[in-house]
């Protein structure tokens, strides 16, 4: 009884001590979180802008897909291009602080197409390729890495207005770039020069076509078959369930990113970073599960689909398949250059870096968790396909095609540059890539006096 009385007597003091300890613990956690934020971003957490897109968010591994709340199918079948995005749909990327809108032809751009040159002072640059090219376009529009370099290092362009026209979308692979280029040229589109960024999709996604006995020249089955099955009412219950999970994951990630930016305390920010990373990992796993379901699905060869997709004409071994991928890729690049030469336009071709193609780059443990997934569906395609593409590069150079191998540009970069386990780059990665592209183009132009005369 005496001990109970003493406990009651000392209870306020015990509670006071406990509360003081909790306050100190909270302060300790907050200081630790703030220190961790500083170590990763070299910035005091409390001074950041609420709307600022910082490196911590760029390193979460969030998907590159457009962010919408009222759309479950973002792509639309296109009779010439394969597919495009839904016009007027807003799109924002993790490394960007602005919202882009989808134009009349289904591309994220500031202008409808064809864009008509408004005066002789405008320099029109088209960008073609897949999602990495699309991201480069939007990064360039916002940050003007290429534009500033052109104006600073080429006197003839110092006072020009640089216009960037994106014609790239996620999953595009040759000959889609070639077909889109010739279509837009037929509509009267003018270019001073075109940048084609590719390589990854041509081997990683074409390899998926090969595995499914679909013609290598067909658009990516990863992107096209779900649209075909929706149009043909051929989606199974398991596929619909997987798609529903992916859509749910994407909405969850959107909401988590919004709350992340609104964090007022470094500790709550850190907690939300961890939870968002877990959600992003779940999203990637569900994407891979969907691909697994698609791969296991037995297609009925007698079924009459509303969309015609060409099957492979003959069975070939894997080495022959990759040689044909490279041949198709090289032929498409040649024809793009030829089409542009007929319009008195320049052509520049860049092979994008990818984490599954081994170079001199060393991955930190943090980046490896984001960028590398064992037995990823794209891994075999990249590891077998990139060496074949790079062998073909030397031949293209002898044909005076300005082609640049960018696969090693991240080798000396210590910070994280990849944003997911596919192929995409964060803000730091896009800056390095954009700088390489800008410097390569400037060097080529400065070495060709005849080229510079067109802007005098």
Quote the beta fraction.
5-15%
Proportion of residues in helical segments: 40-55%
Order of helices and strands: HHEEEEEHHEHEHHHHHEHHEHH
**Which structural class is indicated by helix and strand composition?**
alpha/beta
Overview of this structure, please?
- It is a single chain.
- By secondary structure, the protein is of the alpha/beta class.
- The protein has 2 domains: 2-47, no CATH class; 75-219 and 318-455, Rossmann fold (3-Layer(aba) Sandwich), CATH 3.40.50.
- It contains 14 helices and 9 strands.
- It has helices at residues 2-41, 55-58, 131-143, 145-153, 176-186, 200-211, 221-231, 237-261, 266-296, 318-341, 365-371, 379-398, 427-446, 449-452; strands at residues 75-78, 82-85, 90-91, 100-101, 122-129, 161-166, 193-198, 346-351, 403-405.
- The strands form 3 sheets. Strands 6-5-7-8-9 form a 5-stranded parallel sheet, sandwiched between helices. It has a two-stranded antiparallel ribbon with strand order 1-2.
- α6 (200-211) packs across α10.
- The longest helix is centred in the N-terminal third of the chain and has 40 residues, at 2-41.
- The chain is globular, with a radius of gyration of 25 Å.
- The model is unreliable at 50-72 (pLDDT under 50).
